[in-house]
Design goal:
alpha/beta, 241 residues, two-stranded antiparallel sheet, eight-stranded parallel barrel
């Protein structure tokens, strides 16, 4: 099995030594990285480093502002520089009907242009998308029904919202493009894989069955990102035995 890691997991070293952090992930056995923006580090350089280290950029977490008319061309160029074909919006303020309407219009306008460039557009959830917003809308349903975006299911945040991530994966099927494999407790506190109470093994089995890319995310930097990244991949290797 090949696994990716969301680089937010190692943000403590990423800003200080991007290349060294990528190398550490490759040395641990990760084959893919999901990038975040670090000021001063150009996408072309990230692409060069990943190719050198044998890593693929499975996706980016890129804010919706990158889809505006004035930014979209640069956004496409940056993804192409990293050989990346997946742009994931890592959440957005969709707390009112007006904000949802604006967001839907933005992504529906940008998505065809991204597709022409060979880039898939997706959305990454947290917990609040499964609850009513200020105007009573369920954000996740609005995204499902009013856009054609693919979905990266953050399986822990779905669990935290009292949803069954395995059921969601099974129900939404082809809308899923990847998952965040993640652990934590019922109060919203994250832990490395195998140290919380989220249904990590069941999610792993379902994602494996569906052939979905599995992207590890461990957010708490306890004691640091590299240690958590190591705990996570060692847990996954044990699952394979």
């Amino acid at each position: 099995m090949q696994y990716g890691i969301q680089l937010y997991s190692v943000r403590d070293t990423l800003a200080k030594d991007y290349y060294g952090t990528l190398k550490a992930m490759a040395d641990l056995g990760y084959k893919m990285v999901e990038t975040i923006t670090v000021p001063g580090v150009e996408a072309s350089r990230v692409g060069e480093w990943c190719r050198e280290l044998g890593l693929s950029v499975s996706g980016t977490h890129t804010g919706a502002h990158a889809l505006t008319e004035e930014n979209l061309e640069n956004t496409i160029r940056d993804h192409q520089a990293m050989d990346c074909r997946l742009l994931i919006i890592p959440g957005h303020d969709l707390s009112t009907k007006e904000k949802i309407d604006e967001f839907v219009a933005l992504v529906n306008r940008a998505q065809p242009e991204l597709e022409k460039a060979g880039i898939t557009l997706a959305y990454h959830n947290h917990s609040h998308e499964f609850y009513p917003n200020q105007d009573g809308q369920i954000i996740y349903h609005e995204i499902l029904n009013r856009t054609k975006m693919k979905l990266e299911l953050d399986t822990y945040w779905a669990f935290n919202a009292k949803k069954d991530p395995v059921f969601i994966l099974d129900k939404l099927g082809e809308r899923m493009i990847a998952i965040h494999l993640k652990d934590g407790d019922e109060q919203g506190h994250g832990y490395p894989l195998g140290m919380g109470c989220a249904p990590v093994k069941a999610v792993w089995e379902k994602a494996k069955e569906m052939g979905l890319p599995m992207i590890v995310e461990s957010e708490t930097l306890t004691p640091d990102g590299l240690t958590e990244a190591k705990i996570c991949i060692e847990y996954l290797k044990q699952l394979e035995k």
